[in-house]
Specification:
The complex is a heterotrimer. By secondary structure, chain B is an all-alpha fold. Chain B is 76% helix and 0% strand. Chain B has helices spanning 7-42, 46-50, 64-72, 75-106, 112-121, 127-141, 147-171, 176-183, 188-217, 220-225, 234-239, 249-282. Chain C has a domain at 89-269: MetI-like (MetI-like fold, Orthogonal Bundle), CATH 1.10.3720.10. Chain C has helices at residues 3-12, 34-61, 78-85, 89-118, 125-132, 140-151, 157-164, 178-206, 210-218, 223-251, 255-260, 272-281, 286-314, and strands at residues 63-65, 72-74. The longest helix of chain C has 30 residues, at 89-118. Classes of the chains: A alpha/beta, B mainly alpha, C mainly alpha. Chains B and C meet through helix 1, helix 4, helix 5, helix 6 and helix 7 of B and helix 1, helix 2, helix 5, helix 6 and helix 8 of C.
Chain lengths: 417, 285, 317
């Protein structure tokens, strides 16, 4: 029928046109034969306008003939899902930036490669701060799955001027902090944000660690819901439930909101890490104070460390090339560059930590000193689920007084067990 | 005609008209208010955004965020890509759903009702679940990270509603037209091409607009199936301004304004035909 | 119909004046392959990119899916049993109902009112109609962030205004309280969705025959009666299909909730679709995540069936 003769060719022509257009916008094709091995590297970025990562990639590509790296940026709130679904479909990258939260989800499943053989043969492995290797290991296992790259430890900022006004001393114990928070609250000001929104679990765990609680004991048993932890947690919750020392919106606030509140002078204290130090120093100058997170008894204790490291995906067939890239990233000049950039965090190399940039500023030193004693989230399989899914609703319920401190910790512990 | 309408009625009418006017303005304010806030925020200097509270009107207007957006981020590429994807997805949707609509309107065949229901059912799952399978499929077809792959997915999800719209529209075109054409000796293809298609045009405007909006706004598939600047679309680009520790409100709002502008202009151009197209198509269902 | 009328139709680009609906018999063209050819591209496209993933997801729900090895282990309805057995299941179901029906019914009413308003003549009507549609055409990330900015308790415009005019003494934490989180989300979705309803209903209103309305008025019906007996039945098919589609789209709308509240505070804004998403990706449990989606789809299927029943009655078959 002439009818079909008309219709189908039209579709075919359009199809060809579309395909051509599609190929024009498509991904660069693999260069066949001998040429640099191309690897893909996933990362998230905090600041989309900062060119540091692109510069590093270019430097690497021009100095390495055998490997070429292609960067792919994924928004952080989609990062984990994209990793998971690409693992399922085999479309993942060769190497990727990763948080320690997800280690327990990916490593035991065999999704990320064991880096120990590579590390053993790596020159700079001695330069990495010893205690940091643990962040890439699973409990009870020596194999390293994540190469340390950028680290943070949490501490406490406070407004020197506010404290002076009220005649308060910088808090040493957690009770001091509670008192200070209560005193600060009033006249349009609040004590501290509790950050119950995305990412807030780090701030909370820092408090818990500083208060002497643990997630797991030496044997690897989950002890998050034991009596000590319950008390420490109760203190934290009381900031909202009893003292109303947190500003409106705090129980669902993410870091961006918390920072805005502190910068605007709405809160007198803030828990965070050196990533924000330069900016806050610029805003407050001498009115900014930095101290370790108050501990249970006022004596020096632990805080939370958070590692953003690099992993190699097990499904990749270019692991050697991927290793070249991630190990290069963790070498001294690159670490220096990264840590000094707007998106940078603490360096993981002894050589860089001991350099002037990191020893001359006493406020920064608070964070640097904590590197050796800070604890991270243990790499349990349930941590990813807790961090990404369960912690927020549970803590928000607790803040609203719907469940008790004991109950909320037990539920969290159950997720981990 | 009446020489003098009673004052009571005149006042009543006047009040009614004023009330109507107020209602119209109120609705417009509610609808456009957030965009105005977004526009003002995009014109605010960055230091003021984080600083002292949300003063709606900035102390000085600046286009710095637009400059930064265009020069330091690949935003214009994202814009181009979104347009490119739409340029492929919308025609595909139109061709495919026009064909289907004509088939279902003009022909009687078994399973016609089932096809209609099938098209509806195809939309029942949330995208977050379907994306897993789609990713594997696109990879298998070699369409990952291509404009074409994304456009095909968008077209597939726009087709059901577009078909429904066009079918309704086609139903309202009298059969006599084709019959007259047949009497005049035209073939089926000619009937469709010369007679039906022109009459379907308003309906195609409606369906095309719907498809365009779908692909312009779509985020999850765009994020999952594209990874390079050469293929990424606007919603993904906007999302990248949400960082780990900060949200670049200045860039986000500037990008937002630039994302919405083409659509606004498009709408203003198209709205008359859009309503006409929906009018004839919507009633029959 | 004469050739001249045919020419007229072609030249003016408008369908010939509509007659009362009498001849809706389909021409007997059974057996011709033409319909299949016309239909095939649509079927293929939708089947490949929407149908197959759908089926595969349903299959996931019946399996224990190991994410990283892709191995599927058939477990029958176990996922469903465990999902329904969680303490939060029925509350989530309830919230989903509130979210979906609340948002859609408000949009329907709002859209209807707006459509009635737009059906009148006023200056710049065309421009106005174009502008009204903008929320519908805005990416969800933008909608979410715009409103987050406006609703912020400490810096947002809305709270500042409310405080400034003395309506409230303390800022309202719209998205941080159990009592207000879901309603706020609903209102934002309504804001985004009214334009769609308004335009669809407006279109239907404009095709209601003026003659019918006039004859009803001549027969002595007041405006309300005219509306009820003439206009409403004529626009009912449009209302039904738009409502159905909006029900489906709203129940699957995850982006807005995810960005603004993440399902919180607590679980006060968690819907089935969001729970499906969180379970699939954050807890790496594809099977249970798919189970949530299937359960929701079953409810939606009921509505689709209802719709089919309702429309079959007045389709001329």
């Amino acid at each position: 029928m002439s009818f079909t003769k008309r219709f189908l060719p039209a579709v075919a022509i359009l199809g060809v046109a579309a395909l051509t257009a599609g190929c024009a916008g498509g991904a660069p094709s693999e260069s066949p034969g001998s040429g640099p091995v191309e690897i893909t590297y996933w990362l998230w970025q905090d600041d989309a306008t900062d060119a540091t990562w692109t510069e590093l990639a270019e430097e690497f590509n021009s100095s390495h003939d055998d490997v070429e790296v292609v960067l792919e940026t994924i928004p952080l709130d989609q990062y984990q899902n994209q990793l998971v679904s690409s693992a399922m479909n085999g479309t993942g990258p060769d190497a990727a930036r990763s948080k320690d939260w997800w280690l327990g989800q990916f490593a035991p499943e065999g999704a990320i490669a064991d880096l120990t053989p590579y590390i053993d043969g790596w020159d700079a492995s001695d330069d990495v701060v010893d205690s940091l290797w643990a962040t890439g290991e699973l409990p009870g296992d020596d194999a390293v799955y994540m190469l340390p790259h950028q680290y943070t430890t949490l501490y406490l900022y406070y407004r020197v001027d506010y404290f002076a006004e009220l005649g308060l001393e910088p808090p040493k114990s957690q009770q001091d902090l509670l008192d200070a928070a209560a005193a600060l609250t009033g006249d349009g000001r609040y004590g501290i944000d509790v950050r119950g929104g995305a990412g807030g679990q780090d701030q909370w765990l820092a408090w818990m660690y500083a208060g002497g609680a643990s997630v797991v004991d030496d044997k690897g048993e989950v002890v998050l819901d034991d009596a000590d932890a319950v008390t420490v947690n109760e203190d934290y919750l009381s900031l909202v439930t009893d003292l109303q020392a947190a500003p409106p919106g705090s129980i669902t606030a993410a870091f961006a909101d918390v920072k805005t509140n502190f910068v605007e002078g709405l809160t007198g204290m803030m828990i965070h890490h050196p990533g924000s130090l330069k900016e806050l120093q610029g805003v407050f100058g001498d009115n900014l104070g930095v101290i370790p997170i108050p501990t249970g008894d006022g004596k020096p204790g632990a805080t939370l460390g958070s590692m953003s490291g690099n992993v190699i995906l097990e499904g990749s067939d270019k692991k050697d090339a991927a290793w070249e890239w991630i190990s290069w990233l963790s070498e001294e000049p690159q670490i220096e560059k990264m840590s000094a950039s707007p998106q940078g965090q603490l360096p993981v190399l002894e050589s860089v930590i001991s350099s002037d940039a990191y020893t001359s500023d006493p406020q920064l030193a608070v964070a640097v000193d904590a590197i050796r004693t800070a604890k991270t989230w243990p790499a349990l399989a349930g941590v990813a689920e807790l961090a990404a899914k369960e912690w927020n609703p549970l803590i928000q319920q607790a803040f609203q007084g719907e469940i008790s401190s004991q109950d909320v910790l037990t539920k969290m512990a159950d997720v981990l067990r | 005609m009446s020489t003098s309408t009673p004052t009571r009625i005149r006042v009543g009418r006047y009040a009614g008209k004023t009330g109507f006017g107020i209602a119209l303005i109120g609705v417009l304010a509610l609808v456009l208010g957030p965009y105005l806030v977004m526009l003002l925020t995009s014109l605010t200097p960055r230091e003021e955004l984080v600083g002292a509270g949300a003063n709606l009107i900035p102390s000085e207007f600046t286009i710095a965020s637009y400059e930064e957006l265009v020069t330091t981020t690949p935003f214009l590429s994202y814009l181009r890509n979104s347009l490119l994807v739409a340029a492929i997805a919308v025609p595909i949707t139109l061709i495919v759903s026009t064909g289907a609509a004509i088939a279902m309107s003009r022909f009687d065949f078994r399973g016609r009702g089932a096809v209609m229901i099938g098209l509806l059912l195809a939309q029942m799952f949330p995208a977050v679940l379907l994306v897993i399978s789609l990713q594997g499929q696109l990879r298998g077809m070699g369409l990952m990270d291509t404009t074409l792959g994304l456009a095909l997915v968008h077209a597939a999800f726009a087709t059901p509603f577009a078909t429904w719209l066009l079918k309704g529209f086609a139903d309202s075109i009298p059969r006599e037209i084709e019959e007259a054409g047949q009497i005049d000796g035209a073939s089926s293809a000619q009937i469709i091409r010369i007679l039906l298609l022109p009459l379907l045009r308003p309906g195609m405007v409606a369906a095309g607009t719907y498809a365009f909006i779908l692909t312009w706004n779509e985020f999850l598939y765009a994020l999952t199936f594209t990874s390079q600047t050469a293929t990424r679309t606007l919603p993904v680009g906007l999302h990248l301004f949400i960082g780990e520790y900060q949200i670049r409100w200045d860039l986000l709002t500037a990008g937002g304004v630039l994302s919405v502008l083409p659509v606004v202009i498009g709408f203003l151009l198209v709205q008359k035909r859009l309503v006409a197209g929906l009018a004839a198509g919507a009633v029959k269902g | 119909m004469t050739s001249s009328t045919l020419t007229e139709a072609v030249v003016t680009g408008r369908p010939a004046p509509r007659r009362p609906v009498t001849r809706r018999r389909r021409p007997a063209r059974r057996g011709s392959i033409a319909p299949l050819v016309l239909l095939a591209p649509a079927i293929v496209l939708v089947a490949v990119f929407a149908g197959y993933p759908l089926v595969r997801s349903i299959w996931f729900s019946l399996n224990d899916v190991s994410v990283f090895t892709g191995v599927l282990d058939f477990v029958g309805f176990e996922n469903f049993a465990s999902v329904i057995g969680t303490a939060e299941f029925y509350p989530t179901l309830g919230r989903t109902a509130v979210w979906t029906f609340g948002a859609v019914s408000l949009q329907l009413v709002g859209g209807l009112c707006l459509a009635l308003m737009l059906n009148n003549r006023f200056p710049m009507r065309g421009v106005y109609r174009g502008l009204i549609m903008i929320p519908w055409a805005t990416p969800s990330v933008l909608v979410a962030l715009m409103w987050k900015w406006i609703l912020d308790p400490n810096n947002g415009v809305l709270n500042q205004w409310l405080l400034g005019t003395g309506i409230i003494d303390a800022p309202i934490e719209f998205l941080s309280q159990n009592s207000t989180a879901l309603p706020t989300l609903i209102m934002i979705d309504v804001w985004q969705g009214i334009p769609l309803f308004a335009i669809m209903i407006l279109a239907a209103l404009q095709s209601v025959s003026g003659e019918l309305k006039e004859s009803a008025q001549i027969d002595g019906c007041g405006p309300v009666s005219v509306f009820r007996h003439v206009v409403l039945p004529a626009i009912l098919p449009t209302i039904l299909i738009t409502t159905l589609l909006r029900l489906i789209w709203t129940s699957n709308y995850v982006d807005l909730i995810f960005i603004l509240t993440g399902g919180g505070p607590g679980t006060s804004s968690t819907t089935l679709a969001l729970e499906s998403y969180l379970t699939t990706y954050k807890a790496s449990d594809f099977g249970s995540g798919a189970a949530y989606a299937v359960i929701q789809a079953l409810f939606l299927a009921v509505f689709i069936a209802l719709y089919v029943r309702l429309t079959r009655k007045d389709a001329n078959r």
